[in-house]
Amino acid sequence: MPLAATGELIAAAAAARRAVPAFNIITLEHVEAVIAGAEHVDAPVVLQVSENAVKFRYGRLLPLARAAAEAAARAAVPVALHLDHVHSDGLLRQAPGAGFSSVMYDAARLPYEQNLAVTRAAADWAHAQGLWIEAELGQVGGKNGEPPPDPHAPGARTDPGQAAAFVADSGVDALAVAVGSTHAMTTRTAALDHGLLKRLSAALDVPLVLHGSSGLPDEELKAAVAGGIAKVNIGTALNVAMTGAIRQFLAAHPEAADSRRYLGVGREAMVRTVARLITVLGDGGEHSPVHES
């Protein structure tokens, strides 16, 4: 089916008190696994390409984006493409021609006034191109190996009043909020500030986005959706599943040299992870969820 629009998927999910899962992709195996997992539970999904993933692919956006778009066109469920954690204006401007309907422009590292100014400019440009745009306020640490922020440090959590002003003044369509999660966690031990999430949900009239969700247990994810999160970013959970399955396979088959054998095992592990997490987030249709082994 044709590529879906991220904003439309999220608006429908928010209206139904659900969340759209947005999975970060790095390889073709990621693309295929996310779509297969979503098809298994009959749910829409977002494929995300981050600026870091583009850097890994020798700085070229189109090869991965074109592969994702082709796979999405053959999917049995709605699939949207989202350009994630964009810092570069040059990369931002490639989004419309590469099939993306949405972008997350990340200037959260900057002081508030600078974040607002560059995000406003990005939002104006994105809207002129028909793109839905997400921004971030607060500090969701853990990117590029950085340590998580001190939870008591200024700016480590998103302030509801400041967030309301930021959304109104920047014109963004969604806001990623810092409520206690951290990027790149390989253990599921994080806990969210649900009181703060409730206040943010009451203060803002745009969908809220949760980054760093791989470190959250199932009950925390469910509570986040119940508290107003409408888009959940998932990346590390896929990499943990893929890498673990490949390690196990190669340990049992040290003679293996055909990459299809271990990449296939890794891909199937990601399929199971995708299907299970979509079900946790409250989506999924007539099919039974796949349980991770």
TrEMBL record:
The record's SUPFAM superfamilies line, in alphabetical order, gives:
Aldolase
Domain of life (superkingdom):
Bacteria
One Pfam entry name: F_bP_aldolase
Coiled-coil ranges per UniProt: none
List, separated by semicolons, the cofactors it needs.
Zn(2+)
**Region annotated Disordered, chain positions:** 139-159
The name this protein goes by in its record: Class II fructose-bisphosphate aldolase family protein
For this protein's source organism, the top of the classification is: Bacteria, Bacillati, Actinomycetota, Actinomycetes, Kitasatosporales
